[in-house]
Every structure is written in C-alpha cells, then in structure tokens.
Amino acid sequence: MGNILVKQISKEFCNRRHVNRDNDHLCPHGDVIPVLNKIDLEIKEGEMACLLGPSGCGKSTLLRIIAGFDKQTSGSLTINGKAVDGPSSNNIFVFQHSGLLPWMTVWQNVELGLRHIKNPEGKNHVILEYIQMVELDGFEHHYPYQLSGGMQRRAELARALAVNPDILIMDEPFSGLDFLTHMKMREEVVNMHQFLEKTILMVTHDIDDALIMGDRVVVFSNRPSEIKVNRRLDFSHPRIFEKNPELQDIRDELFLMLGVSYGV
Ligand SMILES: Nc1ncnc2c1ncn2[C@@H]1O[C@H](COP(=O)(O)OP(=O)(O)OP(=O)(O)O)[C@@H](O)[C@H]1O
Ligand SMILES: [Mg+2]
C-alpha cells in the first residue's frame, strides 16, 4: 500500500535571526519564508512520480513532509488514508547518498533491511538477489570505502529495495554520478519499478530522467511554489525521445517552462 494524498499543503519557514526562541512557532520578529503554497497532489499506489522545479522551490521540503521528518504549516497529508504524524520506517524508505553504514560490508548493509526473515537460507537468497539486481555481485564483501561512488549508490539502492518499503523517496539520487553510471542507475530504477511496482517519489533536476522514468511528472513554480504541471505519462518503456514525438513535445514544453529555450 503506498497511496500518498497531499491536500492544500502550505509550508512557511521562519528566518530565525531575530526570533524570540521561546515563541518561535509564531515567528513574531523573524521573516516568514513561504515555500509551499496550497499544494494538492495525489500519488497512486505503485506510481512513480518525478518532481521537477527551480532550485529552492520546496521540492526537498515536500519530500521531508511526506517522509514525516517535517510538518506542514497547514493542509493535510495522508498515506494509505492515515494522517502522517512522524517518520515511519515501516512503509517509507528514504534513499540517501551516503546511507550505507561504513563499518558493514555491502552484504551486511543489505541484510540490515531483512531482519524480519528468520530462515538464513531464504535470507541469503534474497540478499544475493538484490545485490545481483544492482550488478554488485563479486563485491558483496567489500566495505563502502572500497567501492566507487556509483557502486556505493547502487549498494544503497539494493539496501533500499531489500527493506521492501511501500514507498521509496529519492531526492536527486543520481546527482554527482558520471554519465554512464547515471544512465545505468536510471535503467535499473525503471526495471526495478516495473518489476516491483513500488510507489516512488523522486526529485530530479533532469527533465529527461523525469520523462524517461516517471508515470507522472510534476513541475513546481518558483517559491512560494504551486504546481504548474501535473501530468500522467502513459508511455511504454524503454522510452526513446526520437521515436516518440509526443514525449519529445512534452520535453520541449518542460524545457521552455523551466527557462531553457535552447538545446531542446
Ligand atoms: N529548515 C529550514 N529553515 C529555513 N528555511 C528553510 C529550511 N529548509 C528549507 N528552507 C528554505 O525553503 C526553501 C526551499 O528549500 P528546499 O530545500 O525544499 O528547495 P529545493 O526545491 O529542494 O531546492 P534544490 O533544488 O536546490 O534542492 C529554500 O528557500 C530554503 O532556503
Ligand atoms: Mg532539494
């Protein structure tokens, strides 16, 4: 189960420089920074939604609210019909760039999410399956420092998948990767999503990632942000722009909307 329903969510931050800390929730002397402005968004179970928008518009803020790490100023958030009032490790996994435990091997890191499997043979089988899914077989017993940045990212993905969450939240998961690793990871996440049908919420700055991967693309305006585009992408995979004029048109439209009029 992984249905996310965001209704009229707004978020304001307070510039704390001049704030009376005993009374900070009211922000009496600080500047109020409106970030999210009445956001309505539904992400259906099993859907992969890609969020795009200018830097500072509040994408990470919305992810943090959905993950339960932060609270909206107003509006409501429900996951599977239940109001969210804090982080839940049961149904949500937040993919982090350096989320691997450095004192554990790849195998042990993946195993962390599988404590509920009691049968050792069954557990070993599942661990290997996820390690193979991200093509890290042969590196099972390496520690994170013995892996390249891209391999670490893939190990983290295996760990996230092993936890088998209903919802996977990814904030710019491919940033800093070299081009080829980025492409491979993108393919792996698409394959994994088609196979496992998890609800995935991913923030990216890469329009092509959003259009090649997403079942839905959501574009935010500048802060205080509103949703400018919320569009289902019912195209089959693999998606190739050159062979899909409709997808290419959406791509051109999004580039223009995000302020790039060349190279589209
Ligand atoms: N804890 C905080 N306290 C005060 N302001 C904050 C806090 N967290 C975020 N902000 C402000 O909220 C706005 C949105 O930040 P956020 O990190 O959500 O943006 P973003 O869309 O993820 O940007 P980027 O694409 O650069 O990652 C920014 O103006 C930021 O300064
Ligand atoms: Mg961000």
Q: What would you note in describing this structure?
A:
By secondary structure, the chain is α/β, with parallel strands linked by helices. The protein has seven helices and ten strands. It starts with a strand and ends in a 7-residue tail after the last helix. The structure holds adenosine-5'-triphosphate and magnesium ion (MG). The site of adenosine-5'-triphosphate (ATP) has 12 residues, from strand 2 and helix 1.
CA(first)-CA(last) distance: 38 Å
Name the structural class: alpha/beta
How many discrete domains? 2
Into which percent range does the helicity of residues fall?
Answer: 25-40%
Q: Any descriptors?
A:
264 residues; alpha/beta; Rossmann fold; 2 domains; six-stranded mixed β-sheet; four-stranded antiparallel β-sheet; 23% strand; binds adenosine-5'-triphosphate; binds magnesium ion
Outline of this structure?
With 264 residues, the protein is an alpha/beta fold. It is 31% helix and 23% strand. It contains seven helices and ten strands.
Give the topology, please.
Blueprint (H helix, E strand, L loop, with lengths): L3 E11 L17 E12 L4 E5 L6 H9 L6 E6 L2 E2 L8 E4 L10 H6 L8 H14 L15 H14 L4 E5 L7 H18 L2 E5 L3 H7 L2 E5 L6 E6 L12 H13 L7
The structure holds adenosine-5'-triphosphate and magnesium ion (MG).
